[in-house]
Design brief:
The protein is mainly β. The protein folds into two domains: about 160 residues, Jelly Rolls (Sandwich), CATH 2.60.120.10; about 130 residues, Jelly Rolls (Sandwich), CATH 2.60.120.10. The strands form six sheets. The protein has a seven-stranded antiparallel beta sheet. The protein has a seven-stranded antiparallel beta sheet with strand order 2-3-4-12-7-10-15. A four-stranded antiparallel beta sheet has the order 5-11-8-9, with no helix packed on it. It is globular.
C-alpha cells in the first residue's frame, strides 16, 4: 500500500493554522471555499468571534440558504428576538425566504484563559448570482460587522413581534454593558440541533458510518446538502467518485485519516478543509486508515451542491461496473492516470 504523499495539493488548507483571513472589530473571517479552489455558488466561511462580539446585526435572507456549525466555544444563537445556547457540535439552519432573522453572539465575559472564550464556527451558504436582498429587522446598518451591505428586502413574510433581546452581547467589546434577557433553556427552535445527537447508523462494511443530514435536520430548501459523517476505523466516506456539476467541500472536525485523490493519498487531520471542484474528473474519497485496536473515529462535515435536477453526473474510476446500473453515470468524464493506492483502508471493514 502506498504511503501518504508529503506534497499537499492546493485544494487542502488547514484553516486553524492559516493567517490569510481578515480581522475587524474582534471578528476573524476566512473564506474557506475560495481557499480550497471553489469558485461556484457554494460558500464556506470560517469565523472566530472574540468575547463581546456578534457575527453581524440580525438579518434574514431572501434567496440564499445558510447553515452554521459550531466548532469550539460557547455562544448564543439570536433568532427573532429569542436567544438559544450554542455549543460545539450544535448546528443552525435558515431556509431562504422565511424572513427568520438571526445572528450569533459571543456573550462570554473574556475572563477565561487566552483563547478559551473564543466562539468558532463554520458558515455554509448558497450565493446569489446577483446582489441579494436582505431584511434587517432593526434597520439596515451603515457598515455591518463582517458583511457587505446588500439590497434591503422590503417585504419579507410576517414574523410577528420581535422579542425583547436587542441582539447585543451583555458586555460589548467596546461600549457600555447591556441589560439583556437570559437565553431560552427549556426548549430550542426546531432549526437548531446538535449534530452528534442526531446521527444514526447508515451503510454497511467499509461504507458504514454514523451520519445525519444537517441540512435536512434544519429544514433547508435542498440547494446544498451538509452531512455530518463519523467514520470508524477501516471505513471510507464513499466509493471514489467525481461529479460533473456539483462542487464539494469536506472539513475534518476530529480524528486523522487519508484523502484519496486519483490513486494518491494525503494525510489529513483536524482543521483541514478540502475542496473538490466539479467537472475536473478528479475522483476522491476520505479513508479512516486506523486500526480497530488503537484507532479513533474520523468526524467530517461533507457539504455539496445539489444539482441533480440540472443533470449532475457521477464517475467512479475504480467501479466501472456501475455504468451498467447507475443512471447518472458520467460517460464523458475527463480521464486521468491513477496512482497505486486502491482507495481502501489497509484493514478495511468487512460486511
Amino acid at each position: 500500500m502506498q504511503d501518504a504523499s508529503s506534497d499537499r495539493p492546493a485544494n487542502i488548507v488547514n484553516i486553524l493554522n492559516t493567517d490569510d483571513g481578515k480581522e475587524s472589530a474582534g471578528i476573524y473571517t476566512y473564506q474557506v471555499g475560495k481557499g480550497v479552489g471553489l469558485e461556484g455558488d457554494l460558500g464556506a466561511t470560517f469565523v472566530v468571534l472574540k468575547p463581546g462580539t456578534r457575527f453581524s446585526p440580525p438579518y434574514a435572507r431572501e434567496s440564499c440558504d445558510e447553515l452554521i456549525f459550531c466548532l469550539a466555544g460557547e455562544g448564543l444563537v439570536w433568532q427573532d428576538g429569542q436567544t438559544y445556547t450554542l455549543s460545539p457540535g450544535d448546528c443552525g439552519g435558515w431556509k431562504s425566504g422565511t424572513g427568520i432573522s438571526h445572528t450569533l453572539i459571543n456573550d462570554s465575559n473574556g475572563s477565561g484563559q487566552e483563547g478559551s472564550d473564543l466562539l468558532i464556527f463554520l458558515v455554509y451558504e448558497t450565493r446569489p448570482e446577483v446582489t441579494e436582498a436582505i431584511y434587517w429587522p432593526f434597520g439596515p446598518p451603515e457598515s455591518p460587522e463582517g458583511r457587505s451591505v446588500a439590497n434591503q428586502w422590503s417585504n419579507p413574510p410576517p414574523r410577528g413581534d420581535i422579542a425583547m433581546h436587542p441582539a447585543l452581547p451583555r458586555k460589548p467589546l467596546s461600549g457600555e454593558p447591556v441589560d439583556v434577557p437570559h437565553p431560552r433553556l427549556e426548549y430550542r427552535a426546531t432549526n437548531i440541533v446538535n449534530g452528534p445527537d442526531s446521527t444514526d447508523s447508515v451503510g454497511q462494511g467499509e461504507l458504514a458510518a454514523e451520519a445525519t443530514s444537517l441540512s435536512q435536520e434544519t429544514s433547508l430548501s435542498g440547494r446544498f446538502g451538509c452531512n455530518l459523517e463519523i467514520l470508524a476505523p477501516g471505513c471510507r466516506s464513499s466509493d471514489p467518485h467525481a461529479h460533473s456539476l456539483e462542487d464539494e467541500i469536506v472539513y475534518v472536525i476530529s480524528g486523522r485519516g487519508l484523502l484519496w485523490m486519483n490513486g494518491i493519498v494525503y494525510d489529513i487531520g483536524p482543521g483541514d478543509a478540502i475542496g473538490f471542484p466539479a467537472g475536473t474528473g478528479i475522483a476522491h474519497t476520505i479513508i479512516n486508515d486506523s486500526s480497530e485496536e488503537d484507532g479513533e473515529d474520523l468526524a467530517l462535515l461533507v457539504v455539496g451542491q445539489n444539482k441533480r435536477d440540472e443533470g449532475d453526473l457521477v464517475y467512479y474510476p475504480l467501479h466501472k461496473e456501475k455504468m451498467f446500473t447507475f443512471v447518472r453515470w458520467w460517460f464523458d468524464a475527463p480521464q486521468h492516470d491513477l496512482g497505486p493506492h486502491n482507495g481502501r483502508a489497509a484493514r478495511y471493514k468487512d460486511d
